[in-house]
């Protein structure tokens, strides 16, 4: 049988993909992070499915659940918040399943940064202003950052930065980015993106930290810093330009 790593999306139950919901509906076992995955999603599981909240389980215990379900002949849904490709701790689970000979598949989900951009009503890549988005975090009590991936280094690029797991350390984020982006650089924090208690804070590097602290935001949030957040004067994209050559539709005469 197969373990399916399913991206549950950023928080709203209806932001799981159609493929994710259909996969969830046919799995006899579902492991989910109770502190992050909306309970409403569990209604998609079969009525007799075994539901396991992994919030208090370590990696060995989670692996044991996945292997046991596989050996019992059950497909398993492993629900992760956001998308499994970033900051999901999926890689070490896959490594354990490879060692155990358990097959798995991945169903992508809506990542938190995409939900945050939607809440801000902003495109993160703007012509001539910014075409690069860096997803990162900062070193703290968790796993240290690799050499060359600290904020001071990444900040030199001037690219739009999306920081996960950093709201508690907003003062440090601001201090490290100020020399590269300037106090007037647009910044935003979106907490609980897509959920009923979503909170959106907008400002600059000069004033975003006091807003975050006043709102009591310490987790389940992304910090976004970059000029594209407030870009207004920029050229239209070449994608829809009337000057752009376009292929003819089948059967149509060539464009003169």
TrEMBL record:
Keywords of this entry: Cobalamin biosynthesis, Methyltransferase, S-adenosyl-L-methionine, Transferase
EC number: 2.1.1.133
Pfam families documented for this protein: TP_methylase (PF00590)
Top-level taxon of the source organism: Bacteria
CDD domains: Precorrin-4_C11-MT
Annotated Tetrapyrrole methylase domain residues: 2-208
Biological or metabolic pathway of the protein: Cofactor biosynthesis; adenosylcobalamin biosynthesis
Gene3D superfamilies listed in its UniProt record: Cobalt-precorrin-4 Transmethylase, Domain 1, Methyltransferase, Cobalt-precorrin-4 Transmethylase, Domain 2
GO MF annotation, one: precorrin-4 C11-methyltransferase activity
Gene Ontology terms: biological process: methylation
Class of enzymatic activity (EC top level): transferase
Stated family: Belongs to the precorrin methyltransferase family.
Protein name listed in UniProt: Precorrin-4 C(11)-methyltransferase
């Amino acid at each position: 049988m197969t373990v399916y790593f399913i991206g549950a999306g950023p928080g709203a139950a209806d932001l799981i993909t159609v493929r994710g919901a259909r996969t969830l509906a046919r799995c006899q076992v579902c492991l989910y992070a109770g502190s992050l995955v909306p309970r409403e999603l569990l209604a998609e599981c079969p009525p007799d499915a075994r539901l396991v909240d992994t919030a208090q389980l370590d990696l060995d215990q989670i692996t044991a659940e996945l292997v046991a379900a596989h050996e019992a002949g059950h497909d398993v849904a492993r629900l992760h918040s956001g998308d499994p490709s970033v900051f999901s701790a999926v890689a070490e689970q896959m490594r354990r399943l490879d060692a155990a000979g358990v097959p798995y598949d991945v169903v992508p989900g809506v990542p938190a940064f995409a939900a945050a951009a939607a809440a801000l009503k902003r495109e993160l890549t703007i012509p001539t202003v910014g075409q690069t988005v860096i997803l990162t975090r900062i070193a703290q009590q968790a796993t240290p950052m690799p050499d060359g991936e600290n904020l001071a280094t990444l900040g030199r690029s001037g690219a739009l930065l999306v920081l996960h797991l950093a709201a508690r350390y907003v003062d440090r984020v601001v201090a490290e980015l100020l020399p590269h982006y300037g106090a007037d650089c647009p910044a935003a924090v979106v907490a609980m993106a897509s959920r009923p208690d979503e909170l959106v804070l907008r400002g600059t590097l000069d004033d975003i930290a006091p807003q975050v602290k006043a709102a009591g935001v310490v987790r389940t949030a992304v910090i976004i810093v970059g000029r594209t957040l407030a870009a207004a004067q920029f050229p239209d994209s070449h994608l829809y330009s009337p000057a752009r050559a376009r292929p003819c539709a089948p059967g149509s005469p060539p464009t003169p």
